[in-house]
Every structure is written in C-alpha cells, then in structure tokens.
Design brief:
It comes from Rhizopogon vinicolor AM-OR11-026. It holds the Pfam family G-alpha. By secondary structure, the chain is an alpha/beta fold. The protein has a domain of 202 residues: 3-Layer(aba) Sandwich (Rossmann fold), CATH 3.40.50. Strand 4 and strand 5 form a beta hairpin. The chain starts with 10 loop residues before the first helix and ends in a 17-residue tail after the last helix. Bound molecules: guanosine-5'-triphosphate and magnesium ion.
Length: 470
Amino acid sequence: MFQTKPRTRTTLERFASPLQNHAWSNIFKEGRGQREAQRISREIDKGILESKKLLTKKDKAIKVLIMGQPESGKLAVLRNLLFALHPTYFHDEALRWKTIIQLNLIDSVKTLLSIVEDELEISGPCSRSPAGSTSTSLLDHYQHTRMRLLPLLSIETNLMRQLHPEHYDPSITPEICEQAGSRWKSVLKKVTLVQPAPPGSPQCRPVTSDKWGKDDPTLVLAAFKDDIISLWEDESIQGVLRRRGVRLEDSPGFFLDDTARIAAVDYEPTEEDIVRARSRTSCIEEHRLVQNGSEWCIYNVADGRGIRPHWASYLDDVQAIVFLAPLVFNDTFEGDKQLNQLQHSMSLWRKVCGNPLLAHATIILLFNKMDILKERLDAGFRVETYFPSYGRAPNDVENVMKYFRNKFLNDHYQLSTRRRPLYYHQTSVIDTEVTKFVMRAVRDGILQRHLESSRVLRPEQDMIGKDSVS
Ligand SMILES: Nc1nc2c(ncn2[C@@H]2O[C@H](COP(=O)(O)OP(=O)(O)OP(=O)(O)O)[C@@H](O)[C@H]2O)c(=O)[nH]1
Ligand SMILES: [Mg+2]
C-alpha cells in the first residue's frame, strides 16, 4: 500500500508558521503577496544551499594550527609555510615588513645604548673598560653618539604612536605587535608607498612616502647609517657586551649586522629579512589560501594568558599541528621568571598532546632555534645546570638533542588518547633556504594525510606512530 510521503515544508512555511495569527500572515493569502512570499522563500533556500556549500568547502579545507610558546618562532614558520604554499603570498606585505624591520633595527640601537649607559653608571667615569680604554672614552663615545642619534630614537616613539594610537602609553617600551583591531597594518600600508624609479634610472628611488614627513624612517636611518655601524663595531662597546655575556645577535629582530643594507635609501626586504623580523602576535591569525586546488586554512595561535581561553573554538577538525619547541634551555620565561623557557614549552606540549579535541591531528614537532642551541653549548652552558636529570652526559648537540627528543616523544606517547602520526624536525627557521625543504616536506605530509583521510588516496604505508626526522 502506498503511503503519501508527507510534503516537506518550504523554508518559508517553516519560518511562517509561528506567524499564523499575526497580521503579517495575510500577505501570504493575497496573490501578489504569494508570489513575493515564494520569491523570498526561494531566496532563503538559495541562501541556505550556499551556506551549506560554504560549510562543506570549509570542512574540506586543510586546517593547520601553528602553536608554541611566545617567541618560539610561530610567525617565522608561518611565513616559511606560506612561502612554500604560495611564493608570492607576502609580495604586497613586503613594504609593511620593511617598516617593522627598520623599527627592529632602531630598537637594537636603543638596547645597545642602554647597556652602555648602565655600564657607565656602574663602573663610574674613571674605571677601565675591558677593551683597555678608560671608561671616559666610552663615556665620550656614548654621549657623542647618543646626541647624534637622538632624532633616530624619537622616530620610534612617533612611529609607535602612529601604529597604536589607541594603546599608546609612553611609559611602556614600545613593541610592535599584531593585535586584533590594531590599525598598524593599515597605517603602514598608507605610509609605505613605492615610488617607481624613473625610466632608464639604474637606481631605485627611496621606497618611502611623503606622509612620514620628517619622520620617514628610511631617510632618517640612511642619515644615521654610519653612526649606527660605528656604534655597533666600537671595540669598547663590544668589550662591554662580551664582559656582560650579552649576545644581541641572539635576540629577536636582530639586524645590526645588516645596517649598511637596511639603512640604505633603496632598501627592500628579502624573504629572509621578513622571516627574521620581530613582531609579536597577540591574537589568533587566520590565513586562507588555495594551492593546487586544495584550500588551506592556517592559524597562527598566539600564546598568552588572555588568549588561551579563546583556543577552544579553533581546535575542532584540526588536521595538523605544527608545534614549535625552541631548545633554548637556559633562558627564563618572560611571563614567569621562575620558569625556564623550555620547561614552559614542555608544559604547553603536554597540554596539546593530552587534548582530546586534537587526538586525530597529525603532529609536526619542530625543535627550533638549533643555531642558538649550538651557540649556547659552544659557549659552555651546561644542560645539567638547568635540567639536573641530564647528568654528566656529553654536553654536545647530538646528546642534548637525544635527551630532549626522548622527553617530548615520551610525553606524546604517555598523554595522547589515541595513536597518531608524529613527525619531528630540527630547525633554525630563520635559515630560509634550509627551512624551505622542511616546509615542503611538512606541506606534502599534511596534504598526503588529508587526501588519505578524505579517501582520495589510500595510504601507501601505515604511518601511525612512526616518527620521522630531517
Ligand atoms: N636565531 C634564531 N632566531 C629565531 C628562530 N626562529 C625564530 N627566531 C626569531 O625569534 C623571534 C621570535 O620569532 P616569532 O616567529 O616572532 O615567534 P612567535 O612564536 O610568533 O612569537 P609571539 O608572537 O611572541 O608568540 C623572531 O625575531 C625570529 O626571527 C631560529 O630558529 N633561530
Ligand atoms: Mg608571533
């Protein structure tokens, strides 16, 4: 016996039913009103269909989270990954990064001057500097240079005020920071306009804009290029840094060795400069792009007290996590001076491994800042001092790596709620050439897993639980 299938209500009917007794319902009873109502109904149905399509598309996007403690190299990895997926992704951002790099350079000059100032306060005008010259000559040099560099120092303040008018507080050391709602990207876009070189001219014109006026960082930096170089190369100042064990070279956004290039009027940032530039992220950034028909959705997940509560909404359907673990074993954590940076990283790693929402995600663990690890070990810092369980094992890269790798892999094994692929690589992500290969491997690995899970490809081998290293 046939049974009549109940007619599916149209969208309009579904929406209309609560309105039956309302005067509005009369509109559906009239001819014109009916046609109008049908048109609206069709539009609503079309809208629903389109949002469904969008949702399906979003579901199909390869969702990748880049995670790690502050300053672990997330942004540097993001830029490298985006370069691997889409080589021109940053082209129209290059000029904005130029200003950030210039600010990074000015910031290093400020740090240098404040170290010298501090040294002079402690040692007094008559003591000898380690380089053999008296501190009076250090004082003279410092005072002379500081006076000359004053205009340079003031453009940083002005620039920061322009970038963050809403948050500017002169009592706080300015730091460039990407923040939800921050205007800095649009401000930089307005002020960093390219002026094309006149036809036939072999030289680029300054990449600058009139909007800066006298504060144009390109022109101010060019004017002080030689002073900055002589300050950085000064033997007595280098002596102070050596004696204090300060290695500005290891600090984020260090460009003093490149002053001649960066302070030139025709400076344009290279890929490597963009990767090395320091700009703190204080929000969760989303980057979407399509590569060879696959849509990628990459999130740079900033870490910080105020941000962690917002993570939860990003953890659904994650296909891969790129986790940054910088092996800087002897630095304290900025947010908590009692905590070692690497211990902080390990505690974050444990949270990621044990999170049930991330149980299906492939993990790519990057032991980053290998260049700094090597430098620290060469300089004689002993791992045992900071991690007593390391004991008397040889204090070299190979053994130290093995020790930390085992710690991370062990946590992953103990805390993961199900078996899943884990790949690990040793990286110095500011080395763009080498990182390119790692990022291509990361890209291909994620894509392969994505195709397997969407059953487009059958896995060639069971990768579950295997580790890989490059
Ligand atoms: N020497 C060295 N520096 C690195 C490496 N990776 C990142 N850096 C530098 O460390 C600084 C911080 O890197 P970012 O990529 O901004 O780190 P982040 O994790 O995004 O930091 P937050 O935005 O504070 O969360 C930058 O100046 C990078 O150039 C590395 O492998 N070696
Ligand atoms: Mg960042």
